[in-house]
Design goal:
mainly alpha, single chain
Length: 73
């Protein structure tokens, strides 16, 4: 049986892979990274489209998750 520490590390690795995949999906969808997405004010340019605002929030959470997991490992 795996220890709790091994299980947690495995789950963190899986979550990190999921977050990286989502980041890649957003980069491909918008043709830019998140910093450029913010600089170009894509949400405002979209007329505050619900989908674009939702993507903004999710993308920001994904990047925060990546940063947090990397700091824990």
């Amino acid at each position: 049986m795996r220890s709790l520490n091994e299980l947690s590390n495995t789950e963190l690795c899986q979550k990190l892979a999921e977050y990286k995949l989502m980041d890649k999906m957003f980069r491909e969808r918008y043709g830019m990274d998140f910093d450029e997405f913010q600089r170009k004010r894509i949400v405002k340019e979209s007329g505050n489209s619900f989908q674009v605002e939702e993507d903004y929030c999710n993308w920001e959470l994904v990047l925060d998750g990546i940063k947090t997991i990397k700091n824990v490992q």
